[in-house]
Design brief:
Helix content is 35%, strand content 14%. With 95 residues, the protein is α+β, with helices and mostly antiparallel strands.
Length: 95
Protein backbone atom coordinates (compact mmCIF):
# COMPACT_ATOMS: atom_id res chain seq x y z
CA UNK A 1 0.00 0.00 0.00
CA UNK A 2 2.84 2.41 0.68
CA UNK A 3 4.26 1.91 -2.82
CA UNK A 4 0.91 2.75 -4.35
CA UNK A 5 0.54 5.88 -2.17
CA UNK A 6 4.07 6.95 -3.06
CA UNK A 7 3.44 6.61 -6.80
CA UNK A 8 0.10 8.41 -6.50
CA UNK A 9 1.77 11.34 -4.75
CA UNK A 10 4.57 11.29 -7.34
CA UNK A 11 2.09 11.42 -10.24
CA UNK A 12 0.14 14.26 -8.61
CA UNK A 13 3.37 16.19 -8.03
CA UNK A 14 4.41 15.71 -11.67
CA UNK A 15 1.01 16.99 -12.83
CA UNK A 16 1.31 20.05 -10.61
CA UNK A 17 4.77 20.84 -11.98
CA UNK A 18 3.50 20.54 -15.56
CA UNK A 19 0.59 22.88 -14.82
CA UNK A 20 2.73 25.45 -13.03
CA UNK A 21 5.20 25.71 -15.92
CA UNK A 22 2.36 26.64 -18.26
CA UNK A 23 1.06 29.47 -16.07
CA UNK A 24 2.09 33.09 -16.69
CA UNK A 25 4.55 34.49 -14.17
CA UNK A 26 2.52 37.61 -13.48
CA UNK A 27 -1.10 38.60 -13.89
CA UNK A 28 -0.06 42.18 -14.62
CA UNK A 29 1.16 43.17 -18.04
CA UNK A 30 4.45 44.99 -18.45
CA UNK A 31 3.27 47.83 -20.62
CA UNK A 32 5.04 51.16 -20.90
CA UNK A 33 1.77 53.10 -21.14
CA UNK A 34 -0.54 52.71 -18.16
CA UNK A 35 -3.36 54.82 -19.59
CA UNK A 36 -4.60 55.44 -23.12
CA UNK A 37 -2.26 58.42 -23.59
CA UNK A 38 -2.42 61.95 -24.89
CA UNK A 39 -4.56 62.75 -27.92
CA UNK A 40 -2.01 65.12 -29.41
CA UNK A 41 1.51 66.37 -28.84
CA UNK A 42 3.46 69.35 -30.21
CA UNK A 43 5.72 67.70 -32.80
CA UNK A 44 8.23 70.57 -32.58
CA UNK A 45 9.16 69.40 -29.06
CA UNK A 46 9.49 65.71 -29.94
CA UNK A 47 13.01 64.25 -30.00
CA UNK A 48 12.18 60.63 -30.80
CA UNK A 49 9.12 58.47 -31.55
CA UNK A 50 8.87 54.79 -30.59
CA UNK A 51 6.17 52.37 -31.72
CA UNK A 52 5.81 49.08 -29.85
CA UNK A 53 3.63 46.28 -31.19
CA UNK A 54 1.67 44.05 -28.85
CA UNK A 55 3.79 41.29 -27.34
CA UNK A 56 3.44 38.46 -24.87
CA UNK A 57 4.34 40.76 -21.98
CA UNK A 58 2.04 43.59 -23.14
CA UNK A 59 -1.11 42.90 -25.09
CA UNK A 60 -1.57 46.40 -26.50
CA UNK A 61 0.12 48.56 -29.10
CA UNK A 62 1.96 51.56 -27.70
CA UNK A 63 3.20 54.81 -29.19
CA UNK A 64 5.75 56.70 -27.12
CA UNK A 65 7.11 60.15 -27.86
CA UNK A 66 10.29 61.29 -26.16
CA UNK A 67 10.41 64.95 -25.25
CA UNK A 68 13.44 66.66 -23.68
CA UNK A 69 13.38 64.93 -20.33
CA UNK A 70 10.24 62.80 -20.32
CA UNK A 71 8.34 60.13 -22.21
CA UNK A 72 4.69 60.46 -23.04
CA UNK A 73 2.25 58.00 -24.54
CA UNK A 74 0.12 59.00 -27.49
CA UNK A 75 -3.33 57.51 -27.94
CA UNK A 76 -3.38 55.34 -31.07
CA UNK A 77 -7.14 55.88 -31.41
CA UNK A 78 -6.61 59.63 -31.75
CA UNK A 79 -6.11 61.34 -35.10
CA UNK A 80 -2.46 62.25 -34.52
CA UNK A 81 -1.63 58.81 -33.13
CA UNK A 82 -3.07 57.09 -36.20
CA UNK A 83 -1.10 59.38 -38.53
CA UNK A 84 2.18 58.79 -36.68
CA UNK A 85 1.66 55.02 -36.67
CA UNK A 86 0.84 55.02 -40.37
CA UNK A 87 3.98 57.05 -41.13
CA UNK A 88 6.11 54.59 -39.13
CA UNK A 89 4.56 51.59 -40.91
CA UNK A 90 5.20 53.16 -44.31
CA UNK A 91 8.78 54.00 -43.35
CA UNK A 92 8.34 57.73 -43.66
CA UNK A 93 10.13 60.22 -41.44
CA UNK A 94 7.90 61.21 -38.54
CA UNK A 95 9.85 64.04 -36.94
Amino acid sequence: MTKQAFFTVLVLLACCVALIQGLPTSSRERCLCRRSGMLSVNMDRVIKVEYHRSTISCGQEELLVVLRNKQRCVNLNGDQGRRIKQAIMEGRKVI
